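Schema walk-through. Below, the input block comes first and the output block second. Nothing else is stored per chain. Lengths vary across the set, and this one has 206 residues.
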Amino acid sequence: MSDTPPASSQRQTSPLSRLIFASRWLQLPLYLGLIAAQAVYAFHFWVELVHLLEAAFGSQTALQALVNSIGYKTEPAVIGLNETIIMLVVLALIDVVMISNLLIMVIVGGYETFVSRMYLEHHPDQPEWLSHVNASVLKVKLAMAIIGISSIHLLKTFINAANYDEKVLIWQTIIHITFLLSAMAIAFTDKLLNQTRAIELEHGDH
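--- output ---
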């Protein structure tokens, strides 16, 4: 005997409900905008990388562009690449990559969670995390990504600490610790919610 209720007993979706549900597509331009931002980051990455390569071959114009972009100042004036400049530029490139990864998580995970299924289950390039993504998982992953980005910024600041005020160093450290504590709180809350769901399912089976 089928447990499916007769069609006459199923509630019909009202036009207002369908309109509200369809409003999720208003997020589509936002995700398209983030894709455009991703393109800008990719362009910026290659510009900085080309400047680094040109500076390595002795281009003073490229070297000055790098020094200005990373805010590096020293006396006497920089006339060639040194280890500190290379490290700061590489950290800046890593920072761009991590923000780009964050954008991918928001674009793909957000679209899959809040707009529409993408049906990538059998796609060979489906990200591993996308198979079990939901609003809670996405929130934790974004928090961890933000901590990674904040860590890179803090490391760049410490390497170039001579060009920053002491208050800037203190506040960046405090902000990073705040991000870390917030991520821990989000992860702990998510763990409690998962445990609660598991208990409810266990009691439901009995």
